[in-house]
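Annex B. Sample input.
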Amino acid sequence: MLAMKEMKKIGSVYKLHVLLLENPWWKQVEVDKTSQNCLGEEHPGIICFCCHQQVKGFRYKCVICPNYDMCGSCESKAMHPAHDMVRIPSPRSYPPHFFLRLHRLYERCTHSSPTVAKPGYGPMTSPDEQMAKDLLEDDSSDTSD
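Annex B, continued. Sample output.
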């Protein structure tokens, strides 16, 4: 009785009908996302750091941790959420220095001052051009997968 009096003070009373679904649409979407993330070609010699399975479909490479690869299933489960990842859709070989350079460029972008110029780069060169040049330059002293 007290509850009815309180509800009258608030305003209109609404009746809600709740239907519980065993397989709601948001769970169906999540399942599809996970399965699509793992469809595709195998990346030869690449093993997921989390589940220790061969990476198939999208390969996710951490730009912070060296030699850290993940499969699409583990990425969908947010198994390495603290770091940014690069999604690699199809298998291909990269130069030995590529991911080390990518890591360095990422660090430069996230931790450097935009007013400090790198020696050897003129004022006519944009930061994007500098980064592309760094990635493509061959340096046999860098070793990474």
